[in-house]
Every structure is written in C-alpha cells, then in structure tokens.
Amino acid sequence: MGKRAVYWLRQAVQMALLLLLVSLAVDWWRKPAQPQRFAGQGLDIVNGGQTTLTALSSGRTAAVYFWGSWCGICKHTSPSVQRLHEAGIPVLGVAMHSGSAQEVAAYMQENGLSFDTVNDPQGRISRRWQVAVTPTVVLVKNGRMIHSTTGIGSYWGLRGRIWLADKVY
C-alpha cells in the first residue's frame, strides 16, 4: 500500500471515529428519561390488544420507537424499524401527535408498517419520557431503558445497537 493510500485510510478512520463520538454525544444530550413505574403500565395498541414494556422486553431487547406521521425524518427511519419488527425484534411504536387511533392505523397501513403502536395524540406519553426529538428509539430490556438514539436510523445501525445491548445487558 502506498503512502497516499495509507494517508487517506488514516483520514477515513479518524473521520469515522469523530462521527461516532459526535453521534454518541448527541444521543447522550437528547437522552429521554423513563418514567417511574412505566414498565408495568398497560398500553393500548392501536389495532387492539394491550401490552407492557415488561412483557415486551422480558429477557430480550425491545425497541420503543417515538415517531410522528408528520415527521419527515421518521419517513426514513420507519422502514428500518419495520425491518426490525419483521426480523423478530420486539418493537413498540408511540405515535406522537398523529391524530386519532383510526388515522394512525390508516397511516401505518398506507406505509406498510405493522409493528405494534400506541397512539399518543396529545403527547402525554412522550412528555413523560421527556422525548424532545423525533424520531427517538429507546432500547428496553426487562422493562428498563438501557440505550437511546435520536434522528435518522438505519436498519444495521439499530440492529447493531440491539445486538450490543443483548450482549452487555
């Protein structure tokens, strides 16, 4: 490998590390806070049924996805979250300020989204979690928040975080 190639490889690695550090810092700054006793609270799913974070994440990592039908970045992240769901990873969406349960269900059907979703028309749930940015993905294991990330998320980026959470927690 020539000197020029080594130089550019070193530059690329440094840039990747810098981007990773900035991303981690932004995630830490925007980190939501799980409300006390929320893990056992019954949550009504838009298409029927009920769940809890404890049931959803018992013994494995689940993704709680705060999104909105009005959110432009969510339109890019939602397909990645759908792929997680299709891969067997437990996913619970929280549709923030997105209308009635019927409107949320219609939006999800139109966009090919089938993961369980709770409607949050007035933003009460997201306020309790102190979610400041959409989209926000919170990883939960055994009912407890273990990691979060905000902004656009790729399937492999989210999948990697879930894999790491399963190994560490």
Automatic annotation (TrEMBL):
It comes from Neisseria musculi. This is AhpC/TSA family protein. Transmembrane segments: none annotated. It comes from the Bacteria. InterPro entries: AhpC/TSA, Thioredoxin-like_sf, Thioredoxin_ResA/DsbE_sf. Residues 47-141 form the Alkyl hydroperoxide reductase subunit C/ Thiol specific antioxidant domain. One of its GO terms (molecular function) is oxidoreductase activity.
